[in-house]
Amino acid sequence: MDKLKILVIEDDSLAREVMAGNLAGQAVDFAADRAAAERKLKAGHYDICFIDLLLGENDDYSGLKLIPLAVAKGIYSVVMSSCDTEETISKAYTLGCKEFYVKGNDEANISAIIARYLQGDGGKQAQTVFAGGFITNDPATRALVTEALKYAPTNLPMLILGPSGTGKTTLAQLLHEHSGRKGDFVAMNCSAYTEELLEAELFGYKRGAFTGAHENRKGKLAQADKGTLFLDEIGAMSQTMQLKLLKAIEEKSFYPLGADKPEYSDFRVISATLEDVQKLLAEGKLRFDFFQRIHGMPVTLKPLAQRKCDIFPLIAAFTKSGKRLSFELGAKDCVLAHAWPGNTRELKRFVELVAAGAQGIVTLETVQKYITPAAAPSTAAPEAAGQGDYKYAVENGLDAALDRFIAGLISRSLAENHGKRAATLAQLKISKRLLYATLAKTRATEGK
Amino acid sequence: MADLEKIYHGIKSRAVNLKAAAELLSKYPPERRDKMIPLMREAAQEIIRLLGEVEAALKP
Q1: Which residues touch B46 (CB under 8 Å, ≥6 apart)?
Q2: ipTM of this predicted complex?
Q3: pLDDT tens for residues A178-231?
Q4: Angstrom distance (rounded) from CA A260 to CA A199
Q5: pLDDT digits (tens, 9 = 90+) for A276-311
Q6: SS3 A437
Q7: Rounded CA separation A224/A160 (Å)
Q8: What is the pLDDT of residues A25-70, one digit of tens each?
């Protein structure tokens, strides 16, 4: 294990010596007064900070004033003081300290603090997480992920919300990695299956359960035994399927298709959707009891447009094992000005395109060439129809032209969303009925 | 915090440090022990001084 970087803010020389003894084996730095503490907190990257509250003879709780500074730097802040009035304790917690201890049982307390920090009860090796597992420099997103990681070792369900490409699957995987669960991370996109297929995929089946079931097959629930089942796009699941899954989640047992005996699986559920959950509930697409069972702790990820500080760290991560890129100033500005409606997925595609080119230095022209202009909803007056569309409408009638227009939009949205129907439903704000009717019509036309 | 409370805090703080140091002392190598003992002595003397202040403050 790497040494933890710890700052001890303590004015008493004997207390510093005691802390050095109790923290042997870690990289410990000391600050004896407020000024030194401020300097070190601003300059250094510490994992944990132990703060004494009274720093000097006539000090007025200047340790309290250091808590926000340490918290802002993402440091796991612990107060260790002999001053333990209720008011002080409450103030310290309000300011963001994670733990408050009265001096006197330091050895045991320090071991517990370090164990808790390493287990992810709060800090969870923040630098490692945010430099690799979930790349973000955005303070709000960091706080959100750190908060979510606190729940990683529990069996509580979690619901991850956010637009497509914001890192829902990455976060789910990260939560699994920090859960301590020995089983696998089993991911499933509910929108990629028809209802029958989804049932077979989730619950598995026995040989002969249906035509084509030539052998027994384990479902995702069984595969996720002692692990995590990640259900993406839960909004695409039918009510019947939600009810079946609800029962399986509550009882931790289920019947594979064609089975006469239940099977058991100790899985933890993490769900995600890019749709508006309240709207899904209001429209009756999401059962309330199912929602209650899966939502546990909700985590909403922000789109990339709201955390632009992550764009270049993400680009660096995407090119880490390949050709590194250097962006010219104008190119950088252009990248930062873009709205990235496809979020990290769009950014990754852009980086792959740019990196595939011959140049290591990325110019403004290169960026403009590969960036997809953000599609903003238009409120302008309608444009005149193109010649092709007009001719088609004149020859086949307006209804046929409208059908063709709708089919074109749906086809493009599906392509941009990698075939995810739920994403298309949300993006175009259309009903399932229209989507399936259009797809059926398109298939029929193609078959002619 | 009133002055007397500050004094109590000082005593308490030094006493717990002294206790913790005493617990660590047996585990320390000789050179570290040599560094620690003068600090413990200073803390003990500081406790005596602070107790004097408490006495003075409590005198009617």
Answers
A1: B10, B14
A2: 0.89
A3: 877 888 999 999 988 888 888 889 999 988 878 777 888 899 999 999 899 999
A4: 16
A5: 889 889 988 889 999 999 988 889 999 999 998 889
A6: helix
A7: 18
A8: 899 999 999 999 999 999 878 999 999 988 887 777 889 999 999 9
> In chain B, what are the domain boundaries?
3-58
Residues of B engaging A, defined by a Cβ cutoff of 8 Å:
1, 6, 9, 12-14, 16-21, 23-24, 27-28, 35-36, 39-40, 42-43
Interface test with B, best of A11, A16, A17 (most B CBs within 10 A): A17
Q: How far is CA A9 from CA A96, A228, B10, in A?
A: 16, 41, 17
Contacts of A15 in chain B (CB under 8 A): 13, 17, 20
* Sign of the dihedral through C-alpha A86, A89, A90, A91: positive
- pLDDT of amino acid A177: 86
- pTM given for the model: 0.53
Contact B42 A14 (CB under 8 A): yes
Are A271 and A157 in contact by the 8 Å Cβ rule? The answer is yes
Considering only CA atoms, give the Rg of chain B: 14
Are A12 and B19 within 8 A, CB to CB?
A: no
- Secondary structure letter of residue B2 according to DSSP: -
Q: Is the CB of B43 less than 8 angstroms away from the CB of A14?
A: yes
**Mutation target vs A (from B1, B17, B23, B35; most A CBs, 10 A cutoff):** B17
DSSP state of A162: -
